[in-house]
Amino acid sequence: MNVLFEAERPPGIIDVSPYWRPASYADGIILADALCWHGLDRAALEELNVPVAAIARGLLFRVLTTQERINDGVGMDFLKDEIARYEKAASAIGL
Q: In this structure, are residues 21 and 57 in contact, taking their beta carbons and an 8 Å threshold?
């Protein structure tokens, strides 16, 4: 969903995609990003109590978005760094 804002008008909601995903899926994406980009360690994962499967799905989502960029020829200069980050995150969750 996207929201448009303009001064003195109510927000306008566009691109509504009525699709339900479990809350753990969003948690998984957040933690996958934290592992890849913000140095989250395995000990913190255990405290947060998010299923490893949810984090794996979040990581898979990020890998697939990278693949889309590769298909479009965009952002290729950071590809090796991203692959290393994904491998580190996968290792942290036991994959």
A: no
Which 3 state secondary structure label does DSSP give 62? helix
Alpha carbons 17 and 37: distance in angstroms, whole number: 27
Q: What is the pLDDT of residues 11-26, one digit of tens each?
A: 888 877 777 788 888 8
Nearest-5° Cα angle at 33, 27 to 35: 100
Q: CA–CA distance from 92 to each of 11, 61, 84 (Å)?
A: 40, 17, 12
pTM given for the model: 0.73
State pLDDT tens for residues 2-14: 788 888 888 888 8
